[in-house]
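Try this one yourself first.
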């Protein structure tokens, strides 16, 4: 399983970019040799890390989970790219989580991000039809194990 995290940062949170990218690398290594069904081989997590600003909500509205398993054409280069068994999710962090990120140590920031991802997936009722055999409970158990390893490092 491959995992990627793509954050969109508010300017006030740009100092946390390297922390989130480091978390993405660590998650990638942790999940590298794990499988959660045949239909999903890669998960892309888009994190919308922007404070609530009236009038701009429409710019940072997360999309529903989506699934891609086809060849697409790059709008920039025209190059054909094969995207296989990809599940994409987008999560908008609430202002209280963003406040914790601004004030936290690197490990605390990573724990906040992991908690937000975990909570989102726990409450996610519907996956795209083609991703139905994704073993969400097993994935969440492994994500929780990763989070506990990080908490142990904190204490």
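Now uncover the answer:
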């Amino acid at each position: 399983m491959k995992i990627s995290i793509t954050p969109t940062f508010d300017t006030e949170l740009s100092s946390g970019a390297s922390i989130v990218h480091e978390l993405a690398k660590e998650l990638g290594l942790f999940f590298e040799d794990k499988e959660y069904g045949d239909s999903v081989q890669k998960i892309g997590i888009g994190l919308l890390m922007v404070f609530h600003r009236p009038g701009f909500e429409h710019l940072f509205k997360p999309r529903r989970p989506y699934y891609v398993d086809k060849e697409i054409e790059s709008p920039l280069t025209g190059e054909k790219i094969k995207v296989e068994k990809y599940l994409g999710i987008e999560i908008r962090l609430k202002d209280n989580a963003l406040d914790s990120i601004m004030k936290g140590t690197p490990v605390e920031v990573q724990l906040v991000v992991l908690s937000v991802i975990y909570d989102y997936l726990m409450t996610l009722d519907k996956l795209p039809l083609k991703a139905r055999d994704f073993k969400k409970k097993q994935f969440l158990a492994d994500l929780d194990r990763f989070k506990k390893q990080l908490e142990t490092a904190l204490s």
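Discussion: The radius of gyration is 16 Å. Strands lie at 2-9, 42-49, 66-73, 80-92.
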